[in-house]
Amino acid sequence: MDARLTTLLSRALAPDASTPSLPLFHAGRWLTDDAQPEARVAAAFLITAAGDGHPDHARARRLLDDPPPETVELASFYRECVERIDAELEVVFERNSEVAAAWDAAAEDLAMAGTAEKAAEALWRAFFPQAVGVRHHENTHVSALRHHRTIEIESLAADPISDPATEVLFTSNVLLTVPAESTDIESLPYPAELRDAIRAAAAEPQRYWFDHPIQIGVEPAANELLYGLRGLDAAIEEEAEPARVTCLLSVSVTHEGLAHVARRYVEAELARDGGLRHLEVIVVTEDETRRLVDEVLLPALGDPAEEVSAGLRRVIGVDGRYGRHYSFLKAVAALWQVALEPHVRATFKIDLDQVFPQDVLKAETGKTLFEHLRTPLWGATARSSDGEDLELGMLAGALVNERDIGRGLFTPDVPIPERLPALDEHVFFSALPQSISTRAEMMERYDGAALDGRMRALERIHVTGGTNGIRVDALRAHRPFTPTWVGRAEDQAYLLSVLGQPGPRLAYAHAAGLIMRHDKEAFAGQSMEAARIGKLIGDDVRILVFSAYVAALAHTGIEESETHRLLDPFTGCFASFTPQTLVALRVALRTLRLSGSGKEEDARDYATQAAERVSDALAKDGDPQMVRLALAEERQAWNAYYDAIDALEDAGPGSETVTKACEVFDECRVRTD
Question: What is the tally of helices (H) and strands (E) in the chain?
């Protein structure tokens, strides 16, 4: 193993008298026969990675080579990690002297650490530099980041949104999964044909994993679909002039068979729940996106090459990882404008576990939802703190947790962690930079001379997928997208696709006070619990995906250091210079933390699933070379999409392709009568 890694780990795993031991790091405790098998193998991996200078190295290596029967695949994963780490660190340290120097400094700091807090700080220097120096200086870092995000407005939008009800296409995504095991499918209040289809889908293997999908059969009060649509309907009712608003829903499913019954499920639930006074609901599943490709986009392009056809089918859709439906919910606004409603000029995405608290918005900001969307910042031009020209074609709001809104609308939804980091947080502690970024970027009110929202404002990098929008003119000019393989933070990955483009950089304007109340903990506890382990692993995979993405961009001339200057501290913390090393250590340390805290079932589930999903990501989405090639292919496909939009516009209303698009979308309209 690399000498820098063995030095760090040997000091962390077997500290001498002058170095504080980190919780649960005592090797002997985890190698004994009475320890949980998954924890034993995790400890064996860590000690093996620490090198033969560790006193338990030989015993750990034997355990890793000859593991307990139930952990054979897990041990194989860790053995592969040992080889990958060796190869990764050799390349990184040879190419990046700054990273090598940081690791050397980390080892020295760890040797001199007199407290557990200083030991964590030392390890962060190597594995998680975005947290170094932040603790006890949080306000200083908030101020510095806000200064870095400050932009000078050169011209406000000449044509701001004036009538959001007709000019904005609202969108959201329904994440749908099979009923819980305790649900009696036969008793569900649906037609027999729909119940049979649900039962058949439940027998299929799961293909995709989401944070908290809606479990078919959940009580209406806990159904995110109904909750979010009712909330949007109620918000529109509170506007000065309530109007009929279009809300397009994509439906992404965990099991393939659900895609074919998704609309019937939505219609059944909405019919059971009662009417929505102000919403025209459109439901698009994978079936409809395929029709749009085959019957509208490809004919609009004439007779494209098979490569173009395959590319469009790959990127246009709503099933799969988050990036796929997220890109569709943005790009669909351009198609909607050209084929159906020319007056639609933007799209704004919400999440269905969030609502607009109109009474609080009006009381604390003086503006309703629609009034916030009329901001002339949306469509303005600006200059960044680094002198870069910006086009503010995107708009980003913020969130407040339901449990916190009583303390005020501008209450950060991510608290600054005051506790010491847990075991795995010694190598990755995203809560710390996330809390800094939340305060610096999302909580600004534009109520002072320094930032007035007209001459000076904020650019947003840290955005949430459920409170942001993009103008159609920006869509068609910049053609942004999130790659289909991105499974977490698809909203933040969206920005990466436009880096390095000629001309002004497409950017988010901060919409001060456009804040949604995040209610998922209040009503979606069952679905959140069902997806808890998958969400943890999603963050592990996110590190591999973002790291490979940023490394792939470097091959196009966008230096990793410059990308980090833009994305740090929070978005950039998932783009590591040593991602394979970091994720392997994190998986092992988190397994030990779960097991050591008495959550042995969680530790077993997490370790088993992580080994499978991380291995898959290492072989595909975590490989910068493969990502670079896939990125070029997907960019080509999105160019074809917007070329098709141009062709549809040229063909004009009444043309065969435009008429077909209208037909497809008309069939997507929810009818509950």
Answer: 30, 12
Helices marked H in 489-531 — which ranges? Answer: 490-493, 520-523, 525-530
Q: Hey, is 399 helix, strand or coil?
A: strand
Interval 109-148: pLDDT, tens: 988 887 888 989 999 999 999 999 999 999 999 999 999 9
Rounded to whole angstroms, what are the CA distances from 158 to 162, 269, 377, 381?
11, 42, 10, 10
**Burial of 1 by CB count in 10 Å (0-12 exposed, 13-18 middle, 19+ buried)?**
middle
Q: How far apart are CA 552 and CA 633, in angstroms?
A: 13
Q: Look up the pTM and report it.
A: 0.94
Spatial distance between the Cα atoms of 476 and 490, rounded to a whole number of angstroms: 20
Distance CA 447, CA 365 (A): 10
Three-state DSSP state, 213: coil
Q: How far is CA 249 from the centre of its chain?
A: 18
AA letter at 517: R
Cα separation of 654 and 657, whole Å? Answer: 8
Place of tokens 């340390």: 589
Antiparallel, parallel or unpaired: β 168-177 and 245-253: parallel
Which residues, in sequence order, are bridge partners of residue 460? 508
Residues 6+ apart with CB under 8 A from 178: 198, 201, 202, 215, 216, 254, 255, 258
Nearest-angstrom CA–CA distance, 538 and 532: 10
Q: Could you tell me the CA-to-CA distances from 646 to 287, 351, 395, 429, 649 in Å, in that order?
A: 24, 30, 24, 45, 5
Q: Rounded to whole angstroms, how far apart are CA atoms 571 and 575?
A: 8
| pLDDT single digits (tens) 495-528 | 999 999 999 999 999 999 999 999 977 665 555 5
